[in-house]
Amino acid sequence: MRRIPDFTRTTALVARALGLTPAQLISGFRPAGPADLDGVLALRQQEQGKQIWWDDAAFLQWRYHFGDPAQGRGEFWVVATSEGILAGVGTEEVELGGAPGECRGQFLMDILVRSDLRGSALGPWMNMALQERYACVMVFGSNRNSSSMVAQQFAQQRHLQTYSLHLRCKDLLDRRLGSRALASLCAPVGDLALWGWRLAHRPRGLHGLRVSTVTHLDELGQDFAGWSPVENEVGRVRSRTFLEWRALSNPRSRLTVSVAWRGNRPIGYLVSQPVLARSGSHWLQLLDWNTAPDEHDGAYTALLADALRRAMAANCNAVRTSVLHARSERLLQKLGFVLRPNDSIPFVYSCKPTHPLLALQSPQWHVTYLDGDVDQPCVPPVRTLRTARASAGSLPEEA
Amino acid sequence: MISESEVLELLASAFEEPVNELRADVTKDAIPGWDSMGALALMAAFDEKLGLELTAAEFRNMQKVGDILDFLQQRGALASSAG
Hints:
The complex is a heterodimer of chains A (399) and B (83).
Chain A: H1 7-18, H2 22-28, E1 29-31, H3 37-48, H4 56-63, E2 75-81, E3 84-97, E4 104-113, H5 122-133, E5 136-140, H6 147-152, E6 156-166, H7 170-177, H8 180-200, E7 209-214, E8 233-236, H9 240-248, E9 256-262, E10 265-276, E11 282-291, H10 296-313, E12 318-324, H11 326-334, E13 338-351, E14 364-368, H12 385-391
Parallel strand pairs in A: 4-5, 8-14, 11-12
Antiparallel strand pairs in A: 1-2, 2-3, 3-4, 3-8, 5-13, 6-12, 6-13, 7-9, 9-10, 10-11, 12-14
Helix pairs in contact in A: 1-2, 1-5, 7-8
Chain B: H1 4-15, H2 36-50, H3 56-61, H4 65-74
């Protein structure tokens, strides 16, 4: 592995590459305030404009507080000089349950560097600066520009695994056979095989359980923070406040929250969203879930069964999820979900020596897609999909 | 001063690429490790071994291995291979 200098030396090298002194670089790296919003928006538009299909001002103020704690949950850091904003990176503090004592971490996201400054190593420097500042720093996912930063700047490396359960095969056959006529011919046989697969793996033990969709988590009358991870599991505390914000208030995506009930007692929830890929393929993405500790298998099975039913009703081709959670992954495979080994998502973190996470022996993480910062466009009802395909901006690639 | 073969060894380390894959005509798009971490490793190596400064603009203008060799040549850091 290549030798990367320490923070002090990196500061000197990066500052010099930018024509700054080390002191100017360090003092220029600060949380963004209200006066920085326009500059951050301009930089993001300049560097990522083609990928931005959402109201970025609304999104940034939902995700980051820009000096006003009443606003978003996170903090956006900028490298600002007399030339303006050179780069930025977002952080979100999370409470981690399962470790001894109070345990917090910072997720990093939305990193960007002005394109004329690429080659200055400002991105890796910002990562290092935040690792100097915070006791535990985490990153979810990576892209072509950040993959080696993610692989080399974080001591602990894990991966979310992606699972898929196909419901209809015509789109898959379209891509694999390269002939729509042949795909149409083979699809009924393929769909029958998929139906047989699902029958063999059908959910059992759902007696006494029901699932409903909720639009406000107040309906539950219970704080999800009470559903702590089981022994030796660790993950974000999934409080009602967090879910209301992340799942139901996000201006980039409106998500569905379904709840499993045993009688009048909520025993689990699941967050999902229909996704439309550029190829026209359409699937239901399962983004997050949690269950009461003594009800995991029953609640999760009921929620998955409901998700399958909704996906079939919406003419989805598949149900997919990405997760790092051993108990859930065992259940997914039992229910017929198939691993997609080429679609794993990195989850990495680094902690200072005294951080409580390091006191755990091989912790079992519970990390879901909702722990990341990636959102998919909202998908309209199936009958309007043709209109959506014609007008939609940046849609995900079919994986 | 550094020889061309030593430069290629240095690039192999900075970009995490086998040295026998590096030739003057190999472009940065063909080298996965030619990224921000590679830039940092290269800046550190040039500074430590050659006392040379590498700016963001200079790194960004380099499109292939040969451009790095030219950069070192222009700064008098590349030993001549002529006999």
